[in-house]
Amino acid sequence: VEEDSEEEEDDDDDAVGELDPTTWNLRRSSASTLDALSLCFGMKEDVDNTKFISLLLPEVFKMLQPGNDWRVREAAILALGAVSQGCEEAMAPHLPQLIKGLTTDTQGS
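Now predict its structure.
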């Protein structure tokens, strides 16, 4: 019984780490990396950021499928947010499909 309580404490520690803005974890590092890549590919006039988006969006659309675990769907939303500034123009043509993917299955979640 004590082992269960120790595991619960570990889970609580992880949750606190998620809220601490000074703690770097996999989620925060991944978002930061996607942001940096999108800015690198998206903010330079001589770089075609549609290539970056064409690699990212198929994976995002798979992750947004109804029935996927909420954490998978949340990760897709996090990825979209992370690249939104750097790849705004490249994402614009995909907005109708993205909005559909983001709003599908919201009643069931």
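The radius of gyration is 17 Å.
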